[in-house]
């Protein structure tokens, strides 16, 4: 028997909702707002994974397809026809743009995918929002647009100094979004997040890569000295920030969202402490990225002061839960690592080969 869900009267679009942060946000929003439909538009590139939302799909079983609160659409944010059809059908209240190519290493090896998704895709998406007139655009950016910060923190007015092709593509997207704010009065907010960690993160990023390599008996590749400083933030805290900014921030607001500062070696030490091994026995230093940023330090005073946001997850404690998740979900990891595409990039990454 098919059950009709009669509680849905509002819809949101989440682009890139099958990726790491996007899938965690879909899960957050789905449970937090039972009167909303969540439409996930994802092209399913290498990091997009429908397995990331199997639990939500399971909850939707037995409900008529058009009445489900979670709808998955495989499609490209550059495809203006798909966007037009979705906006016509759902009249979204919010668009949350998580769709992006995000890995710095890959951007050094080749930038074309980053230009296409991070710049051209944003252009297509915000133009669709502009035409719709009633939708608020929530754009997910990165602290990497500020480049390396030697002292203090970079607030939202700090100049852009992107060092990697990835960061440059995100800085360009931010400028395009701000231009639509000023030129067309598109209701928009921007969040510039720091290094997120949590479940469902593709194992090319430092924390899941470290856990995966320990499971496989491989060394953990450490770029350069490992003394690069990053701001580490649990993905649940970032999802709460996105939700809060979308609903309470004034139009045209820009907010940094940051966590705890520590070096790559310090975060790895905390990870391996939950695996009962010594980091010294399991790390291997490889060539550093060209022009690597030494310190990201976004200043999140604004979101804390104006909206009352603060991280709830302590890094050291929550890392234990994250490590446990990857140990429990080794089939998820194995499925990804079995792909030729992952193996090719892994070999380059683990040797510090950038070209």
From TrEMBL:
The keyword NAD applies. Gene3D superfamilies: NAD(P)-binding Rossmann-like Domain, UDP-galactose 4-epimerase, domain 1. Its EC number is 4.2.1.46. GO terms for molecular function: dTDP-glucose 4,6-dehydratase activity. One of its GO terms (biological process) is nucleotide-sugar metabolic process. Pfam families: GDP_Man_Dehyd (PF16363). The keyword Acetylation does not apply. Its cofactor is NAD(+). SUPFAM superfamilies: NAD(P)-binding Rossmann-fold domains. It catalyses: dTDP-alpha-D-glucose = dTDP-4-dehydro-6-deoxy-alpha-D-glucose + H2O. Keywords: Lyase, NAD. Signal peptide: none annotated. It is an enzyme of class 4 (lyase). Residues 13-317 form the NAD(P)-binding domain. NCBIfam families: dTDP_gluc_dehyt. Belongs to the NAD(P)-dependent epimerase/dehydratase family. dTDP-glucose dehydratase subfamily. This is dTDP-glucose 4,6-dehydratase.
